[in-house]
Design a protein that fits this description.
The complex is a heterodimer of chains A (about 290) and B (about 325). Chain A is mainly alpha-helical. Chain A has a domain of about 200 residues. Chain A is about 75% helix and about 0% strand. Chain A has a two-stranded antiparallel ribbon with strand order 1-2. In chain A, strand 1 and strand 2 form a beta hairpin. In chain A, helix 2 crosses helix 9. The longest helix of chain A is centred in the N-terminal third of the chain and has 31 residues. Chain B is mainly alpha-helical and about 325 residues long. Chain B has one domain. In chain B, strands 1-2 form a two-stranded antiparallel sheet. The two termini of chain B are about 20 Å apart. Classes of the chains: A mainly alpha (about 290), B mainly alpha (about 325). At the A-B interface, helix 4, helix 9 and helix 11 of A face helix 5, helix 11 and helix 13 of B.
Chain lengths: ~290, ~325
């Protein structure tokens, strides 16, 4: 039983990470209707910016918030400069542009910072927290906490502010929103900025665990897709819960089902997604989209 | 494009393809064989994504299935290689049709993600069934020699085999898409509900299209196993699937010639990027991708069509 709880706890820890990247994905999807394949690389690049700041002697939390600001501006710029020219192109064209962005960010990061792994500091104490016989890593708990705070802030932003309302309107019905005086183009840009910020938070929480290198997000992005699919692409809360579920299942299956072991862990997570998609195509918490004929 | 211009274009391309082995080195020829193999796979994916509107990020899985079918049949049972290519196609036809059935419930983004999952799982699954696939070591094959005492090197022979298969499959696809079936496939993409109301069996056509598309990709996979003479799980990672998608979008969606342009792009542009910058070749590749999409949002075939239409209009304009 102890092993079980320990596996659940460490599953929740990794799940929190998947959830935070999934949250960023869902954010962009909701604000712009685009699945951003470059999300993981944007988060990785933001983390490198934080690393540069910290190495230059900036205190952790200053660097943390500084990175958020830089990431927001960077996200807005990426949308304005790179995505905007293809805004009205077929969806697959946008997908290809995002893939282009992905390889550019990855390659440039490798070029500037090299592919050697770098340690990244955690803001939380290194001492583990014991609850009975189950060990909680302080960083893991902190990371989940940070993710939940981000989720709450996002919820409040979209629910209670005028800007949040305008962004939702712009995504749902661009034409009517424009008639109401909402600048739809800028709402999209702000959506990218926010998603870049959420990604930056995720990156800075992941880096102390997996170490910082240009490819650190590749694996995580895949699980984040899985989490977002499971929770539903239309539900930010669902994305976080989906992340936690994927993390826990992945760990438990790896531990208890022996013919699967660690080799087929990924396959199991993906099979799970397929099953969910077939029975509940919009995810566990998502809304089904209704088309008018 | 007028039919005559098209016929001239096709004849010219064929002529160039036939004499190409006389003028290029063995290595270049190998690269062009790869182009042919990619073109077959891209045509398959284009039938599904371009014509039928089902986005697949998982065609690398069918490519892998085809490649391993060929490799295992040759390596284990000494089956003659032409039969193994046919087997690869048939097996993928069935696999694609079966995968197409659950895919019926998904559309757009969700289908893309489901197929993406398929692509991701492939290397792990291949490594798991080590007994058949040789695990991470893969399977080494030997290239077949030219038959009937032809004075061709194995590389040259494989080039002509690929070219033959390519031409046959392109003609097949053209005939399939130009007729009644093709209209049904396109109608489903443009408006599934209207298509159904017109009496098109949407579910059947969609799964069949998935099957045909997978079969093309499987044949390409089988050929690639012969051409490279080696299969290993890591060659069939998720980037293969993404590369195939890049190929059809760059080449031109819903265009048969687009498959060829796309194949040239995915084969040669990464090499050029490498030549331009050793430090960050993928950054250059990414810039190429984005620029291509800016300049030709409908792919190379779409841009060509537009250019020819403009030229044609100007031509008739001066005569009138």
């Amino acid at each position: 039983m102890e092993i079980f709880f320990q596996q659940v706890v460490s599953g929740l820890a990794t799940g929190g990470i998947y959830g935070s990247v999934a949250l960023a994905l869902v954010m962009i999807y909701q604000a712009t209707d685009v699945v951003n394949y470059a999300q993981g690389e944007m988060a990785m690049f933001s983390t490198y910016i934080a690393w540069t700041l910290i190495n230059a002697g900036v205190p952790y939390w200053w660097a943390f918030f500084g990175t958020l600001v830089i990431s927001f501006v960077g996200g807005v710029l990426l949308e304005r400069v790179i995505i905007r020219p293809v805004e009205s192109a077929p969806i697959l064209t946008i997908v290809i542009v995002c893939i282009g962005l992905l390889v550019i960010l990855n390659s440039v990061a490798g070029w500037i910072y090299s592919y050697i792994q770098k340690p990244f500091p955690s803001p939380f104490p290194p001492k583990p927290i014991m609850l009975g016989t189950v060990v909680f890593g302080a960083h893991d708990l902190g990371a989940i906490g940070v993710t939940l705070v981000v989720l709450a802030l996002l919820y409040a932003f979209f629910r209670f502010t005028t800007l949040g309302l305008a962004m939702r309107a712009a995504a749902q019905n661009p034409v009517s929103s424009r008639l109401c005086g909402i600048r739809v183009g800028w709402m999209l840009a702000i959506g990218w900025g926010l998603a870049a910020m959420v990604g930056a938070v995720a990156g800075m929480m992941v880096a102390p665990i997996v170490f910082l290198d240009p490819n650190m997000m590749a694996g995580i992005l895949i699980y984040a897709f899985a989490s977002a699919t499971l929770g539903g692409f239309t539900s930010p809360g669902g994305a976080v819960v989906g992340g936690l579920i994927v993390g826990v299942i992945e760990n438990l299956v790896g531990t208890y089902v022996h013919f699967i072991g660690t080799e087929l862990k990924l396959t199991v997570a993906l099979a799970l997604i397929l099953i969910v998609l077939v029975f509940k195509p919009s995810g566990l918490f998502g809304r089904a989209t209704i088309h008018r004929v | 494009m007028t039919p005559r211009a098209r016929a001239v274009g096709v004849a010219a391309a064929l002529a160039v393809a036939l004499v190409l082995p006389l003028f290029v080195s063995n290595f270049r020829l190998f690269q062009f064989t790869q182009v042919g193999v990619y073109a077959i796979a891209l045509l398959g994916l284009n039938v599904l994504t371009g014509y039928n509107g089902q986005i697949s990020l998982g065609h690398g899985a069918f490519y892998a299935l085809g490649a391993y079918t060929t490799a295992i049949m040759i390596d284990r049972w000494d089956v003659p290689y032409p039969l193994t290519i046919i087997a690869a196609g048939v097996l993928c036809l069935v696999a694609g049709f079966l995968f197409g059935i659950p895919a019926l419930r998904l559309e757009g983004l969700y289908l893309a993600l489901a197929t993406f999952a398929l692509a991701l799982a492939i290397p792990q699954i291949l490594k798991y069934f080590e007994h058949w696939t040789g695990g991470s070591q893969g399977i080494v094959l030997s290239k077949p020699n030219a038959p009937w005492g032809l004075k061709l090197s194995p590389d040259q022979w494989l080039y002509f085999v690929t070219l033959g298969v390519l031409v046959a499959l392109f003609v097949l696809a053209r005939n399939l898409l130009a007729g009644r079936t093709g209209r049904a496939i396109v109608a489903i993409r443009d408006n599934p509900i209207a298509a159904q109301a017109m009496g098109v069996n949407t579910a059947l056509y969609k799964s069949l299209t998935f099957g045909v598309s997978a079969a093309y990709t499987g044949v390409a996979g089988g050929l690639s196993a012969l051409v490279i003479a080696f299969v290993a799980p890591d060659a069939f990672n998720v980037f293969l699937s993404i590369t195939l998608l890049v190929g059809i979008v760059i080449g031109g969606l819903a265009s048969i010639s687009g498959a060829l342009f796309g194949a040239l792009f995915i084969q040669f542009v990464p090499n050029w990027a490498q030549d331009i910058s050793k430090a960050a070749p993928w950054a250059i590749y990414g810039v190429f991708l984005i620029l291509f999409m800016y300049v030709m949002p409908r792919g190379i075939a779409g841009a060509l069509r537009l250019a020819l239409a403009r030229a044609g209009r100007r031509g008739t304009g001066t005569r009138a």
